């Protein structure tokens, strides 16, 4: 299977938009997305589709001079969470940000973690 490539939702000020549906990640390769605008206005949505277990959502560490450490969050069963990130910390040389879901052991990849992103105006 191939890495899941997400298309973001671009919000426009004072205009309604449909909330994006979080997409399942490839269990082996995860997901990637490319910001659509300024890096300080990127909202990442995470959904744990597992109704019985917590899962770990991880935004992988970036590459280049602004690269930061990976960002992880344990998401409880059937919960949805969000975070605004500064994409420069997580951007890879190809212009994408990579994310992956894991079981609570932190090493076993999980397809139960779903991601979506919204570019804020």
User: What form results from the Cα inertia axes?
Assistant: globular
The DSSP helix count reads 0
Radius of gyration: 14 Å
CATH topology-level name: Hypothetical Protein Tm1070, Chain: A
Strand arrangement, major sheet: 1-4-9-6-7
- The percentage of residues in β strands lies in 35-45%
Distance between the termini: 34 Å
Assign the CATH architecture.
Sandwich
Total separate domains: 1
Strand tally? 10
CATH class: Mainly Beta
What is the helix/strand order? EEEEEEEEEE
Mean pLDDT across the residues is 92
Q: How would you sum up this structure, described in words?
A:
The chain is mostly beta strands. It has one domain: Hypothetical Protein Tm1070, Chain: A. Helices cover 0% and strands 38% of the residues. It has no helices and ten strands. It has strands at residues 4-6, 9-10, 23-24, 31-33, 42-48, 55-59, 71-75, 80-85, 97-102, 113-119. A five-stranded mixed sheet has the order 1-4-9-6-7, with no helix packed on it. The model has no long low-confidence stretch (mean pLDDT 92).
Helix and strand topology:
Layout: E1 4-6, E2 9-10, E3 23-24, E4 31-33, E5 42-48, E6 55-59, E7 71-75, E8 80-85, E9 97-102, E10 113-119
Parallel strand pairs: 1-4, 2-10
Antiparallel strand pairs: 3-10, 4-9, 5-8, 5-10, 6-7, 6-9
